[in-house]
Design brief:
The structure is a single chain. By secondary structure, this protein is mainly alpha-helical. It has one domain (about 5-55, about 65-170): Protein of unknown function DUF5063 (Four Helix Bundle (Hemerythrin (Met), subunit A), Up-down Bundle). The protein is about 65% helix and about 5% strand. A two-stranded antiparallel ribbon has the order 1-2. Helix 2 (about 25-45) crosses helix 5 and helix 3 (about 65-70) packs across helix 4 (about 100-120). The longest helix has about 30 residues, at about 120-155. The N and C termini lie far apart (about 55 Å).
Length: about 170
Amino acid sequence: MDNSDIKTLIDEFIAFVDTGAARSADRDQELLMLLDSLALAQARGCAGCGSTNYPDPPDERDPSLRKRVQSAFKDYGYYNEVEVLRDDIADTGVMVGDAIDDILGIYGDLREVQRRWEHNSPEDALWFFKDLYGFHWGWHLRNLQRYVHDVLFGSWRQRATVEASDELRSE
């Protein structure tokens, strides 16, 4: 995967959120595939990127974006998320995640990457892409991957419960 492939993927995700999700028959599967591709891109990309002191590109936030995303993903909502992932094993709190906020968080950071690509340089954009993955949009991406997986395939606990109930009924 080269830098132009990463740019194309970022453009595809943004276009999907902007207009494609509302028209897609396989919206959930398409979203999961884009998320998986973005995760792979951040791991393989960034050849020749580095932080340079560029001015911030223009801010182009769209106040109607949240409503459009909510409309395209009507059945997406809140989910459980562990409070502490690697410590306090089996003794941690549960927080609430928001799939719509995850989409918006990824979208916002990738729009910023697009702007940096257009106004600064591909190197600056790729540095930003990789850097923000580590502490912002990567968290949203991984949580949203789990959420969409559950939408598409259900949770393993739900399947195990259904299978156990089916076995009891057949006895």
